[in-house]
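It is worth pausing here to work through a concrete case rather than discussing structure prediction in the abstract. The textbook approach is simple: state the sequence, then state the predicted structure, then interpret. We follow exactly that order.
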Amino acid sequence: MIFVACWHIVELLTQPQSDFDFGVPIANFPSSKSSSSDPWEDFSSIFRRGQQPLPQTWADVFGPLRKGTVDDLVIVGQIGQSLDGRIATESGHSKYINGPAGLLHLHRLRALVDVVVVGVGTALADDPQLTVRGVAGPQPSRVVIDPKGRLGADARIFADNGVRRLLITAQGTRCAPPPGVEIVALPAAEGCIAPSAILSALAGYGMRRILIEGGANTVSRFLAAGCLDRLHVMVAPIILGAGGPGLILPPLERADQAQRMPIRVHKIEDDVLFDCDLSDQRVALGIAKKST
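Step two, the predicted structure:
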């Protein structure tokens, strides 16, 4: 369980960065989509080059995603939820729990990774595009995990817009995605494909920076399997009372058995981002870092 304290609303636009010890006041970030002088476009370009130091504006939030600490992969999970840990109402409605700045943060994450991964439940419920629309930056490859071949060929995740599209399914499943969509068939146990097998397959395709975007079941499975370096939990200042839970993990008998991790906290307009460092618990999947 992730417990979230209520935060007083502060006026960030008039305060210097040094006034905030909980993170970067991201509400100050420019949001222009594309121009030769767009600071985000400059940042994302420097981020991908990997050598030049990052401009401080976004470095605290996105710098940890630049290079892996366990191996050559960086895997980040992302989830948006209410104060009481819900990602949707009891009827399943979820647009939008987080505010515009939270959505902008998600688009920035997409612009920095090689590939975005979602489960078939999210693809069926939301029909997401998984594109970079709100910010400048390259479009990531798109992957849907669909062990039983449930997703129709008209899903927007399969749209041909010049990026690589992969359908990960169970061996022996019949799938008929549109032309150009690559099928990756992997072993499955009880209808589920191991997160480590999925990541190893993506690494084999040259994908090193991976965003596990949703839904809750998919992010939870990667978290429980020790397959995340970071977890971004974007908390909105609302209480839903009932509905779908954000993270679904095996039950614990005692509270002191709960998984603990270092975190950074960032105020993003009305939302609060919890950046959880899971690198100490992440299993090795790619090319291991050499000891020094």
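Step three, interpretation. The beta strands are 74-81, 115-119, 141-145, 165-170, 182-186, 209-214, 230-235, 263-268, 271-277. The chain has six helices and nine strands.
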